[in-house]
Design goal:
The complex is a heterodimer of chains A (527) and B (342). By secondary structure, chain A is α/β, with parallel strands linked by helices. In chain A, 35% of the residues lie in helices and 23% in strands. Chain B is built from 15 helices and two strands. The chains are: A alpha/beta (527), B mainly alpha (342).
Chain lengths: 527, 342
C-alpha cells in the first residue's frame, strides 16, 4: 500500500545532540523454557524520534516490547531510563516512567466507557497500583477530555460514556492512543497499529504521531509493513532470531535491503505468476446479490486462473467472499461450478461442492487454537478417515496431516502440537492445508497473508501459484495491493457493492489500481 | 473525524421507537422494574388485598437476607467470577456465632456480633479468592468445592442440633421495629430494622463499585482479566477482594437470618444459591462478568421475592412459583442477550 505521510518531506531528525537517551537497554536477554527469545539486545530511544521495530514473527520483537512495558521481566541485561538503571520494571512503574504501550489488540476494556478507559490508568499510576483509593470522577473526565482532544476525538458526554465495544475499530484505535498519551507519555509503543485501518484512518494516525513527535514524545512502531515504515520515516531497528541485526535511518535503505535484514533472504517484489496455463471454465458467478452488501456480481474463472478481488472495507468484498463460501448466503443469483448450480446456503454445501474457503480472521473464524495441528487439518474429511467401526482412524489421520504439513512446509516437529504454538505464517499454512484435504476445485483465500511476516508470505505465495498450476481455480480477496499484483491474473475492484473495474494484472501499476480504489472513495464522499 | 464516531453519536434528538428500545437495552434494570410493575398490577387486579402495607413490609423483610447475598454475588459476577459457597459460609458463620454467644458470651452486643460475622465471612471469602487466584481455576468449581467442605465441617465438627433459643441481643434485634403500621382492620404490621442493614450494605456496595479504584478494577477484571492485568490492575487483590466481600455480606446475612427467624438451623440456606444468582442476573448483570448494577440487583431481588410471596394471593399454587421465576429468567436472558455487542 502506498502511503503518503501528511508531512511530505519527513525531516529525519536523527539522534539528537548527544543528549542522554530517554530509554536504553543493554544486552537484554530472555528465555522461555529452552527457547532463547532474546539473545542480548541493546538499543536506545531518543526523545521525539520515531522508531520502527521490525522483524518476522518469532524474531523476539513482541518479547522486547513486553520487557519495555514491564509486562515481563528480562532474565538478564540492563534497562536505563534517563540514564539511570531501573531494577524491576512493573507495568505500573513503566507507566509512571512515561512508557505507554498500545497493544495490537488495543487492550481496551470492552465493558468500560471511553472516559474510564482513557482516564483511569492515570489515577492507577498516581496511586502506584494501590486499589483502595477513591476515584476522582472529575479528574478522570478532565484527563479523558484532554487526551481525546489531542487525537481529534469528540469529548461530549455521550461519547465519553459510550462503551468501547460499541465503537468502530478505527475509533477504538484512537481511544487506545488517547489513553497512551493521557498521562504524560514520553514513549508510545504501538504494536502493529495499522492492521485493521483503512488508508484514510492510517493517514489520520500518522497525523497524530507527528503531533506527538513534535511534543518530544518518542514513538516506537512494531511492524512488518515495509511500505508504511518507508512512508512514515524515522529509524529502523531490525531483529532476527532474537538479535538486533541492523539499526539505520529508514530513508537510507531500500525496502529490499530492509526485507533482507528481516528475513536473511533476498525477496524482490517481482510477480510470482509466470506462464499461467488456463483450462476449461470452472466457476461462473451469475448476478449474485445480497441486500445491503453487493449487487449483480458476475464473473467467471477458468481452471488454473487466479482472480483477485479488492475494495475498501465497505465495498462488499468481504460479504461476497462469505456468500461464495455459504457462510452468509446471497439473496439472489447463482454460483456454478462446471455448469452445475452449487449456490451454497450453508458452508457444508460449499465444501461438498469442492469450494475451500480460507477465512480472513484465522484466529476466530478458522482455527481451533487449542487443538492439535492434526485435528485442525483433518477436520473437514473425518468421514473419509473412518475405519470399519466408524471410528476416525488415528494412523491415517496422522499420515494425512504429516503429508500436508510437509507439502506446505509448516515448521513443526510434531503434528500433535497445538496450533497455538505456531507462528502466524505457519498457522495460515495449516489453515490452507486443511482445505487442500478436500481436494477443492475452487479455493477462496480471504486475506491470505494478514499478520504474516515477509518470509512466510513468500512461501504462501509459492503455494498459491503451485495450486493454480495444478489446475485449481483460486480467488484471492485482499486489500494488500502488492499481494494481488504479484499473484493474480485478473483483479476486480469493488465499490459500494458493485464491480467497478476489472484489470489484467500483468504489467498493471500499483498506482493505477490504487487510484481505482481511491477515485471511487472521492466520488462517494462527494455525493 | 466526526464520521469515525457516527455510530456512537448518531442517535439523539427526537426519541423514536428504535431509540427507546436501544435505550432500554442499555439499561436492563428498567426491564426488571417493568416486570415488577406488571406483576404488581396483575396480582393487585385479581386480588385487591395485595395493596396493603403489610404486604409491602413482608416483601421487604423477605428481601433482606436475599438482598445481602445478592450484593455479594453481584460483586463477584461483575469481576467475571461466580460464587456458590456463600450460603455455606452464611450457615457456618451464623451457627458458630450463635453457639459461641449462647454458650460462652451471652452478653455480647449486636454490633460486636455483626463485626464478628463479617470478619468470619470475609475470612472464608478471602480463602475462596486466594484459591481462585493461585489455582487459576474456574471460580464455579472452586466454590462448589469450598461450599461442600465448609458445610461438611459445620455439620461434623460444630454441630447439627437446632438452637431454639437464640441470644438475647440477636432476638431483640430481630424484634426491633423501624416502623409499625396499624391497619384499619386492626392488624399490626412491622417493618424490621434489619431492612436498614440491607440499605447500608447496598449504598456501601454502590459506592465501592462506582466511586473507588477497586470498584472500577472489579469491572475491568470482569471485562478482560488479561487486559486489566496489563494495565496495572493487581488481579490477586481484585480476586481476593470480591470473594472476601461476598463472604463478608454472607456472614452478615447469616446473622440477619437467625435474628429474624429466632432460630439457628445449620441445615438452613443450603440450596438457595441459584435463586440468588438468578435474582442478580434478572437485575441485568451478565453471567459472563463485567456488568451489573446495585439498583438492578435490588430490583431483581424484589422481583424474585415478589413472585415467591404474592402468587399465593391470587390462587396460584406455590408449586407454580418456580415455573414463573423460570420463565422470567429465560425472558430476561433473552432480552439482555439482545444488548448491542461489538
Amino acid at each position: 500500500m502506498q502511503l503518503k505521510s501528511t508531512d511530505a518531506s519527513h525531516p529525519d531528525a536523527g539522534p539528537s545532540k548527544a543528549a542522554i537517551p530517554f530509554l536504553e537497554i543493554r544486552d537484554v536477554q530472555k528465555s522461555f523454557g529452552g527457547v532463547r527469545a532474546l539473545k542480548g539486545v541493546s538499543f536506545a530511544i531518543e526523545p521525539g524520534q520515531i522508531y520502527h521495530l521490525m522483524g518476522e514473527n518469532g524474531c523476539g520483537k513482541s518479547t522486547l516490547i513486553k520487557i519495555l512495558s514491564g509486562a515481563q521481566p528480562a532474565d538478564d541485561g540492563e534497562l536505563l531510563i534517563d540514564g539511570k538503571p531501573v531494577g524491576k520494571l512493573t507495568p505500573v512503574a513503566a507507566l509512571a516512567a512515561g512508557i505507554e504501550t498500545v497493544y495490537q489488540d488495543l487492550s481496551l476494556l470492552p465493558n468500560l466507557s471511553v472516559a474510564e478507559n482513557v482516564g483511569l490508568t492515570q489515577q492507577l499510576v498516581a496511586s502506584a497500583g494501590k486499589l483502595a483509593r477513591r476515584l476522582d470522577l472529575g479528574k478522570m473526565r478532565q484527563t479523558a477530555e484532554r487526551a481525546l482532544t489531542a487525537v481529534n476525538l469528540p469529548t461530549d458526554r455521550l461519547f465519553l460514556s459510550t462503551r468501547t465495544d460499541e465503537l468502530p475499530i478505527a475509533t477504538r484505535q484512537l481511544v487506545a492512543i488517547a489513553r497512551a498519551i493521557a498521562s504524560d507519555a514520553r514513549l508510545v509503543i504501538m504494536d502493529e497499529p495499522t492492521t485493521a485501518l483503512t488508508k484514510r484512518e492510517v493517514d489520520n494516525l500518522i497525523g497524530v504521531v507527528d503531533r506527538l513527535r513534535a511534543k518530544g514524545v518518542a514513538v516506537l512502531f512494531v511492524t512488518h509493513k515495509l511500505d508504511e515504515c518507508k512512508s512514515i520515516g524515522g529509524r529502523a531497528v531490525i531483529m532476527r532470531d532474537g538479535l538486533k541485526v541492523a539499526e539505520c535511518d529508514v530513508a537510507d535503505h531500500s525496502k529490499t535491503e530492509l526485507a533482507f535484514w528481516m528475513t536473511g533472504k533476498v525477496l524482490d517484489e517481482a510477480r510470482y505468476r509466470d506462464e499461467p496455463a488456463f483450462g476449461t471454465n470452472l466457476l461462473s458467478v451469475e448476478t449474485l446479490s445480497r441486500r445491503g452488501a453487493f449487487t449483480d456480481i458476475s464473473f467467471s474463472l477458468r481452471r488454473g486462473e487466479i482472480i483477485g478481488i479488492t475494495g475498501l472495507l465497505d465495498s462488499g468484498r468481504n460479504e461476497l467472499a462469505l456468500a461464495m463460501a455459504g457462510v452468509i448466503p446471497a439473496d439472489t443469483g447463482r454460483i456454478r461450478l462446471d455448469a452445475a448450480d452449487v449456490t451454497p446456503k450453508v458452508p457444508a454445501q460449499a465444501i461438498a461442492a469442492g469450494i475451500g474457503y480460507v477465512p480472513e480472521d484465522r484466529l476466530s473464524e478458522g482455527l481451533f487454537l487449542e487443538k492439535s495441528i492434526q485435528d485442525n487439518i483433518v477436520m473437514p474429511v473425518l468421514d473419509r478417515l473412518r475405519n470399519a467401526f466408524g471410528i476416525v482412524d488415528g494412523r491415517r489421520s496422522r499420515e494425512l496431516a504429516e503429508r500436508t504439513i510437509a507439502d506446505l512446509q509448516v515448521a513443526t516437529p510434531d503434528v500433535a502440537n497445538r496450533v497455538q504454538s505456531l507462528s502466524g505464517g505457519n498457522q495460515q499454512r495449516v489453515l490452507i492445508g486443511r482445505w487442500l484435504t478436500i481436494n477443492p476445485q475452487l479455493l477462496i483465500l480471504h486475506g491470505p497473508t494478514v499478520g504474516v511476516d515477509v518470509g512466510s508470505k513468500d512461501t504462501i505465495f509459492r503455494i498459491i501459484q503451485r495450486l493454480a498450476d495444478e489446475g485449481m481455480g483460486v480467488v484471492i480477496i485482499s486489500d494488500d495491493l502488492p499481494e494481488l499484483l504479484q499473484n493474480c491474473d485478473r483483479i476486480m475492484v469493488m465499490c459500494k457493492g458493485s464491480v467497478v473495474e476489472t484489470f489484467e494484472a500483468e504489467g498493471l501499476a500499483e498506482e493505477t489500481l490504487y487510484r481505482a480504489l481511491v477515485q471511487e472513495t472521492t466520488a462517494r464522499t462527494g455525493q | 473525524m466526526t464520521d469515525l464516531t457516527s455510530t456512537a453519536t448518531a442517535p439523539a434528538g427526537k426519541p423514536s421507537a428504535a431509540g427507546i428500545w436501544h435505550w432500554l437495552l442499555r439499561h436492563p434494570p428498567v426491564f426488571t422494574l417493568i416486570m415488577i410493575v406488571l406483576v404488581c398490577l396483575v396480582v393487585g387486579m385479581i386480588n385487591p388485598d395485595f395493596w396493603q402495607v403489610a404486604n409491602l413490609f413482608d416483601i421487604l423483610r423477605a428481601s433482606t437476607v436475599r438482598g445481602l447475598f445478592a450484593l455479594g454475588v453481584l460483586v463477584v459476577l461483575a469481576s467475571g467470577g461466580i460464587d456458590v459457597s456463600f450460603t455455606a459460609i452464611a450457615a457456618f458463620v451464623m451457627y458458630s456465632i450463635t453457639m459461641l454467644v449462647t454458650n460462652w458470651m451471652p452478653d455480647m452486643s449486636m454490633p460486636v456480633i455483626l463485626l464478628l460475622a463479617a470478619a468470619g465471612g470475609a475470612g472464608f471469602g478471602a480463602l475462596n479468592g486466594l484459591l481462585v487466584h493461585s489455582l487459576r481455576a474456574p471460580s464455579l468449581i472452586v466454590t462448589i468445592g469450598t461450599q461442600y467442605v465448609i458445610r461438611s465441617f459445620l455439620l461434623t465438627f460444630v454441630g447439627t442440633a437446632l438452637f431454639m433459643n437464640i441470644p438475647v441481643s440477636m432476638e431483640s434485634f430481630g424484634k426491633m421495629a423501624l416502623f409499625t403500621h396499624h391497619s384499619a382492620s386492626g392488624t399490626i404490621s412491622v417493618l424490621p430494622a434489619s431492612v436498614l442493614v440491607l440499605l447500608v450494605a447496598a449504598v456501601a456496595t454502590w459506592w465501592i463499585l462506582q466511586r473507588t479504584l477497586i470498584g472500577r478494577g472489579v469491572y475491568a477484571v470482569g471485562g478482560s482479566p488479561g487486559i486489566a492485568e496489563r494495565l496495572g490492575y493487581n488481579l490477586r487483590v481484585v480476586h481476593v477482594f470480591v470473594f472476601a466481600y461476598a463472604g463478608l455480606l454472607a456472614g452478615i446475612a447469616g446473622i440477619m437470618h437467625v435474628s429474624s427467624n429466632r432460630l439457628a438451623n445449620p441445615f438452613d440456606l443450603a440450596g438457595t444459591e441459584l435463586e440468588i444468582i438468578a435474582a442478580v442476573v434478572l437485575g441485568g448483570a451478565r453471567i459472563t462478568g463485567g456488568s451489573g448494577s446495585v439498583i438492578g440487583t435490588m430490583l431483581g431481588v424484589v422481583l424474585i421475592t415478589l413472585v415467591s410471596n404474592v402468587l399465593i394471593l391470587v390462587g396460584i399454587p406455590s408449586t407454580w412459583q418456580l415455573a414463573i421465576v423460570g420463565v422470567f429468567i429465560v425472558m430476561a436472558g433473552t432480552v439482555f442477550s439482545l444488548r448491542p455487542r461489538r
